[in-house]
Amino acid sequence: MNSTNLSDSEQHLLIEKLQLFKIQGKDKQGRKVLRIVGKLFPARRLVSVECLNKYLEEKIFPRLGKKPFSVVYIHTDVQRGENFPGISTLRSIYEAIPSNVKDNLEAVYFVHPGLQSRLFLATFGRFLFTGGLYSKLKYVSRVECLWEHVKRNEIEIPEFVYDHDEEMEYRPMMDFGLESDHPRGYCGPIVDSPVAMYSMRCIS
């Protein structure tokens, strides 16, 4: 059932304009990359799940072809009340993906996961998503760590994602979801060694 006042063509145009889904570049394994920016998800009152699925079926899946691919999902600044579509919506989208496309999905790089996302997926991920999706999930705490998996300069990363990385330099506990969103005083590095700090940043 369509819960929006926009026509299907208007919804498709909105998804296209937002560049929510974009195929660009390759990862270090030579696989095509489907980039998804969570913050750009339109409100559910504007775009229906059915239209999202139809857009993927018509515009994205054919371009992936029949070869293995990976997904870079950017979770930066996703807010439950604004641009988070909800677990049930994400599950509906995933379950609507044709089996041959699911089989070709080999890795999901989850950029800037919060503590709540990690806990939820660790608890319910195996049950909510079929086809072994949870086992393909790799958490990426910083953009610099993404380049260990994806070819640098072949994928566009929005500026606000780099801004979030920069903020974490001054609030390192944000890496682990232990700080609130309320401004606080400077929180110094918890590890002195640059090498140790880098390795902790990139833990997946």
Automatic annotation (TrEMBL):
SMART domains: SEC14. It comes from the Eukaryota. Pfam families: CRAL_TRIO_2. Coiled coil: none annotated. Residues 14-164 form the CRAL-TRIO domain. This is CRAL-TRIO lipid binding domain. It comes from Dillenia turbinata. The lineage of its organism: Eukaryota, Viridiplantae, Streptophyta, Embryophyta, Tracheophyta.
